[in-house]
From TrEMBL, chain A:
This is NADH-quinone oxidoreductase subunit C. Gene3D superfamilies: NADH:ubiquinone oxidoreductase, 30kDa subunit. Pfam families: Complex1_30kDa. Its EC number is 7.1.1.-. NDH-1 shuttles electrons from NADH, via FMN and iron-sulfur (Fe-S) centers, to quinones in the respiratory chain. The immediate electron acceptor for the enzyme in this species is believed to be a menaquinone. Couples the redox reaction to proton translocation (for every two electrons transferred, four hydrogen ions are translocated across the cytoplasmic membrane), and thus conserves the redox energy in a proton gradient. Residues 1-26, 224-246 are annotated as: Disordered. It comes from Actinopolyspora mzabensis. Keywords: Cell membrane, Membrane, NAD, Quinone, Translocase, Transport.
TrEMBL record, chain B:
Belongs to the complex I 49 kDa subunit family. Residues 12-22 have a biased composition (Gly residues). It is a peripheral membrane protein. HAMAP family: NDH1_NuoD. NDH-1 is composed of 14 different subunits. Subunits NuoB, C, D, E, F, and G constitute the peripheral sector of the complex. NDH-1 shuttles electrons from NADH, via FMN and iron-sulfur (Fe-S) centers, to quinones in the respiratory chain. The immediate electron acceptor for the enzyme in this species is believed to be a menaquinone. Couples the redox reaction to proton translocation (for every two electrons transferred, four hydrogen ions are translocated across the cytoplasmic membrane), and thus conserves the redox energy in a proton gradient. Keywords: Cell membrane, Membrane, NAD, Quinone, Translocase, Transport. The keyword Endoplasmic reticulum does not apply. GO terms for cellular component: plasma membrane. This is NADH-quinone oxidoreductase subunit D.
Amino acid sequence: MSGDDTTGGLPETAAEHTGPTEEAAPEQMVAGRARKGMFGVTGSGDTSGYGGLRVPAYVPPEAERPYGGWFDEVADELFEGMKRRGIPDSAVLRITVDRGEITFYVDREHLVEICRTFRDEPALRFELCSSLSGVDYGPDVPQRLHSVCHLTSLTYRRRIRVEVAVDVADPHVPSVVDVYPTADFQERETWDMYGIVYDDHPSLTRILMPDDWDGHPQRKDYPLGGIPVEYKGAEVPPPDQRRSYT
Amino acid sequence: MSIDAETPTGSRPGGDGSGGDRSGGDPFAASARETTEGRVYTVTGGDWEDFLDDTQQEERVVINLGPQHPSTHGVLRLVLELEGETVTKARSVIGYLHTGIEKNTEYRTWTQGVTFVTRMDYLAPLHNETAYSLGVEKLLRVSAPERAQTIRVLLMELNRISSHLVFLATGAMELGSTTGMTFGFRDREEVLHLLEFLTGLRMNHAFIRPGGVAQDIPENSREKVLEFCKVMESRLPDYDKLFSGQPIWKQRLKGVGYLPLDACLALGTTGPILRSAGLAWDLRKVEPYCGYEQFDFEVPTSTDADCYARFLLRVEEIRQSLRIVRQCMDKLEPGPVMVDDPKIAWPAQLSIGPDGMGNSLDHVRKIMGQSMESLIHHFKLVTEGFDVPPGQAYTPVEAPRGELGYHHVSDGGTRPMRVHVRDPSFVNLQAFPAMAEGGLVADVIAVVASIDPVMGGVDR
């Protein structure tokens, strides 16, 4: 977060944005990266006058009751089911609702049991694990690696997202293969690409990259690679070294 | 048998040419006798019976099938443990076509991402484009205009037809029916011609973009599309004639690759495989997108859960897709094909000039001669792209092989933070051991054909 440097002629909106993120507890899910300047260009003189602009990293806001639609019902049933299984309510760290999708950020200790609750509770019945993948929010973000699981209920035709965030130094997430066998390949892929270790996975080996590959290619600090290309006398740098505006 | 001259025949008792005594030494060594010309070996097939005895014993052989094998449906490697001809264990090895498309999209603008994702599942490029675009639109909180949605449906259904035709063609070829292959590829060619007419390219269209489609379809599309429907409808009975009742086809496929509903759900299998197990789960019906709820079509199902049922379902899905295509042509109303937001919509309209396709002359005249602001806007939108508000979205569509889901994460920039593709081929391939183990080697081929994996989508 770039809350340290909010002096100067900052626009009012940016200063407002930094407020809530500064208060954020360390386990709050930062989902983005901080920006400065207007055009995202570095290494050149600032002629635009926007060089002091700071945009803090995005933190998905916690949803407030009522969530709307069936989201409340699912959340209630989840907490009921967790109580029956002896999982503390604090295992769900955060619930966000955005763009018509509900996300449960959960504690990794209880991930498998929460998935089992989602699958087995008669009022939830998320039978299908549609997708399981990783997201890397970049080196500056605390708990940058996220393991994201999309569950589908064929009975009720609902979709939810269950997310776990971990640090690069301790990238362990329990495997949900026991609950959803379909997660097998997808956890292997996430291990391969992001280096998230799925504990108790039956055979956590690389799946897309060769077995002896070093590193995890889809991490943000892993270079894209590529060679400069010469075209009509000019040299075009590889995509990750071109000027970007993001 | 050994005909090695180094064989110390002298040490063998009875090495006198009779060939009958195998009591000592190497039992398979050829017997030899000394003649005036030198030592002469007698090579016989005398151990043939022993060899046959050996095969009676339990013996496991591990074989590799692929990755360069015409029957493995692409660069897919199958490791099979065999007992005789029975497959006791089967595993798939993938990654031979990994191209890092997901990572590449993180270094391009949101619009350029379409050009990448269309190359993933290369038999369903338009489904990839649509799912990607729907995801970006969800993040942008916009939706494409009605006409663009209908064009998307039209293109996706044509694409579904071509994909299922490739399933028929390659599946038939893998099972030895080259006539089926020529039928399938002949008819797919018709679809590709039509898609070329509609979008400008046969494959890798990059036609569907966040916000709508790249440009309107040509004027006389209606005639062309209806003509195609007529041709296709006249040719579909050929597949029934060639396959549906044919004894060899039925013997190869019936009861093979059985995967019941609970196994489908556990393994995450979707698409025709799930429907062949009896669940009418089709995202076009259960979670309609692009206005699918306005179309009248059926979702064919079966309860046989075998390869033959999957074949029948796909042929029936081609029929249903043709129904949707016809309805699309009636539903198409004139109107815009891109969102009315100059911050998202591509500034140029394309046109065909004497030197090929490019920006329309009107547009070039405007940006080069009349409006500096238009030029700046065009330049910035094309090089920089547009910002997408931060957040994440999961967008599934029903691709020919099942649920094709896009998980987009934006950090508010002009490039995606993450694009994950839940490709149905990748997930469905996990069901291959469950379907193939316990069957014969020949069934493995039928099973892989019925899963219909596209390795471009599996490996991405």
